[in-house]
Amino acid sequence: MASSPVRSPIRVIPLGGTGEIGRNMYVVEMDDRMVIIDCGVTFPKHDQLGVDLVLPDFSYVEDNADKLEALILTHGHEDHIGGVPYLVRAVGRLKIIGPRFAMGQVRAKLDEHRITDRAELIEVGPGEGPHIGPFRTEFVRVTHSTPDCLAVALHTAHGTVVHTGDFKFDHTPVAGAPRSDVAALARLGEDGVLLLLSDSTNAEEPPESINERQVGQELRKVLATAPGRVIITTFSSHIHRVQQILEAAFDDGRVVTLIGRSLIRNVGIATNLGCLRVPAQTLVKPKDLDEYRPDEQVIICTGSQGEALAALSRMARGEHHQLTLQPSDTIVYSSRTVPGNELAVNDTINRIVRLGARFITSRTHPGVHVSGHGTSADLQWMLELIRPKFFAPIHGEPRHQRAHADLAIGLDVPASSIFRLDNGDVLEVTSDSAAIVDHVTAGVTYVDGLGVGDVADEVLRDRRHLADDGVVVIVATVEADTGEPIGDAEVITRGFSAAEDPQVMEETRLEVERSLRTSAAQRVTEIGVLQHQLHDAVAGLLRKRTGQRPMVLPVIVEV
């Protein structure tokens, strides 16, 4: 009798999304084949100057591109799909599998990058999915804050790996938002789940006292009592929230306009796919608002995270070309602040206050927002339904992962069966064992304008340096043969506060002349050496005289 072939272990490798919020990307390998679950981005922190997006490091996938079978998407939030065009560029042709709304968004992104021809898009819904290499796929409907969200089950010879995606259990979701399929999750648990990878975002949060439907009721109260315009900012992909705002505005006799490119795009996709129903004559263009009184207007806009170029931030700075904030306006933050964005959000709110407008957040009015992520009670229920042999909390900062692990231990999951992964860890799983066996490169890639990966940590360090103390450029002319200075050096400053002090500037010019004459006396004529000596002399003087460390850039011109 022939023996069964020996199957390689399942290898699970997070390249983003563990130990952080966002940038979700999880590699699953077996029998020398690979699938990826999600490919997201994060937005830059305040000290990542000039950076537009932060991607996972694709180097591991690029090095193993011959093994890659497909990318599977769980839903359409940017922290799960924002990196897709960049991954397609990195690996060439790619099969992408995902739910309808997410695929509509991805199609628009690929069109924007002009690489649609490099991707094969396959829409899936709840139930059995395609076979992908050694993986038989199955998808389960879950409730989240955007349409068409799916948990992913990968059935293998060793057992089943379940990735929950982002989820919550909402038993009274808004119209058009289906409930999480508890029966299908329970069936997976009954059949046996080898490994559960589960969203940890709200592991520290107690059970919610409100649900999404109640948010709609609270927004109706805001519209009924607001004396003028109501401006509501939320995530551009939160279609269920947009639905509730549209219905509340219609019932209050108000019209709605959309401000923000990503919001307009997502609402268009959702409407075309039937995920969003717009009440008759409710949605108008910004230019048509002048036909309505302020108390007949609702504006939905981007900028809930304080993004510098988003609509609300521009309004708060008085830079928006279509809308100007008024003291009679009410601004509603129908969103949570993503960790790391607190300073930017606070700055925008302070600008709103200076303009005299009223603002409402979930801190003062808890009913205006509810998270799309499950609380501790939801996470416990998922664990009880799935009953995994091994468990890895993902999608969360270390504190969230630990809290999620503690929940699992409280449900009698052995601590030895729980793995709090870091990005790059290689978790190997077989039918009867699991262990972290290796670590691969899993850094970050910065997108700066059209450049991807062009911004290194050293560049960010220099940008922070420039932001702190400015730059001093020294332009000096010397004789090519002797190195003797010719004429007066020019000192140019940008962002250097001591530039207004004439004494400091005069001392700087004298120090330039002294350094060049000293170099000439030593018969130094190499430009590189002259620049180095000039840099050290000027930088030392400025540090001593001002206590600041501006970036000093010497430019030597030979004649």
List its traits.
single chain, 559 residues, alpha/beta, Metallo-beta-lactamase, Chain A, Rossmann fold, Ubiquitin-like (UB roll), 3 domains, eight-stranded mixed β-sheet
Helix and strand topology:
Blueprint: E1 10-16, E2 25-30, E3 33-37, E4 53-56, H1 59-63, E5 68-72, H2 78-81, H3 84-91, E6 94-98, H4 100-113, E7 119-123, E8 127-132, E9 135-142, E10 149-155, E11 160-163, H5 182-191, E12 195-199, H6 212-225, E13 230-233, H7 239-251, E14 255-259, H8 261-272, E15 297-301, H9 311-316, E16 330-333, H10 342-354, E17 358-360, H11 376-386, E18 390-394, H12 398-410, E19 425-430, E20 433-439, E21 444-448, E22 451-452, H13 457-469, E23 471-478, E24 490-494, H14 502-521, H15 527-546, E25 551-558
Parallel strand pairs: 3-5, 5-6, 6-7, 11-12, 12-18, 13-15, 13-16, 14-15, 16-17, 23-25
Antiparallel strand pairs: 1-2, 1-19, 2-3, 4-21, 8-9, 9-10, 10-11, 19-20, 21-22, 23-24
